[in-house]
Structure formats: C-alpha cells, structure tokens
Amino acid sequence: MRLLVIDTALATCAAAVYESETDELLAQEAIPMERGHAEALMPLIARVMDYARSDFSELDRIAVTVGPGSFTGLRVGISAARGIALTCGKPAVGVSTLAAFAAPCIAEDLAQKTIAAIDARHGHAYMQVFGEGGFTELAAAYVPLHQALDYVGGEVHLSGNVAAQIAALWPEGEPAPFQFRGAPSPDLGWVARLGHAADPETAPAKPLYLRAPDAKPQDHAHVARR
Description:
Elements: E1 2-7, E2 12-19, E3 24-32, H1 37-51, E4 61-67, H2 71-88, E5 92-96, H3 97-108, E6 113-121, E7 124-130, E8 136-144, E9 156-159, H4 163-169, E10 179-181, H5 188-197
Parallel strand pairs: 1-4, 4-5, 6-9, 9-10
Antiparallel strand pairs: 1-2, 2-3, 6-7, 7-8
Region (Disordered): 203-226
Organism: Variibacter gotjawalensis
Domain Gcp-like: 34-132
C-alpha cells in the first residue's frame, strides 16, 4: 500500500510518501514553521510526490495528523488530505498526534508507561498515557502539565514537545524517566505506519480538538439585525 502522509498539526509543515510493503519513506520533506502552512503545504506535497516519482493515481490512501495541535494547522492539513482523497477516489484516514509521538516508545516495549504530551500553553498540555502493550490509561485530554506526575512510578517513557519540561518536574527520590523524546513534531514514519494500520471507518480525517480556541468573536462587532 502506498500512502501520502501529511503533518501540519504543530510547528512543522511536512509530507512524505510511504510504501508499506518495504516499510520505507520513498520521499519526505519537513519545514519548521509556526505560521504559513496554507501557503507552503501544496507546493511541498508536489515536491515530495515528484521526489518519490509517484503519481497521485498510484496512492492507495492519504494519512493526516488530526490533532491535538494548532487549530489553523490542523484545518490546513485535513483540508488538503480530504481534497486529495476526493480527487483520487481513495480514503483519507486520521492519525492522532499523541499516538504518533507514543508509537516508537511503545514499539520498543521497554517501559511500563508512555506519556505523550504536547504543549497547550498556559501551563497545560494535551496528554495521553499508555500502559504496557499500548493500552490507554488516560485518554487524550487537556490537562495541567503537572498531571503527568500522577503517573510517576515504574519505568516511564516521555514523548512529545514538552517531554523535557515534564522530566524537569519529576519528583526527587523517584526513578528518573526511562527515556524521553522531545521532538517538536511526530516522526512521519510512525504517522505513516499508524495511517496504514488505521480503519477508514473508525479513523476519519476529522480534527481532534480537546479545548475551545483562544480566539473568540467580539460581541460588540456584531451587526444589529432589523
């Protein structure tokens, strides 16, 4: 199965072409950016498809990170995935950003828990906790950053762009986190593997929002109706 993989959930605009039979990224590109995903994404996808020497008609599936993450970034990536899927007549599947961060830790099967956490600002994080075998102990939620300390004990993997911050909060006298991966965005290879394994019926390309946006409409700007 050949997949186009898209990630604009966080501070990166990225895409790749993945071949499941060889478990290989045929081409990939990632540009660090906080804003401007809408302008950068489609030219980036065109370059990646060209580097992979792949035509859109050869794709079997489009996988896209659906959050949690940036409200604007998620809309850009998901809209592109849906549009390409519609044009190609192929399914688009959504991949949780938290699951993509946790996947390489779970695959190593070296720790009893994996805490995946993404910066949600104001001392909060988007967090999910996985037990042995990848079973969920805490479903994806918007929580205070220090809530990660509720899962201290045993061997713990930390993953996500606030892994280092959580490690710095670790209580004295407790075993240090087994390992932490503080990448700014999930690995495209793992987004691809999760996208390949996903069921289009249960993993739609729809945004996973865990809280309301910071920006709110101003009541005084409303035009009075007659």
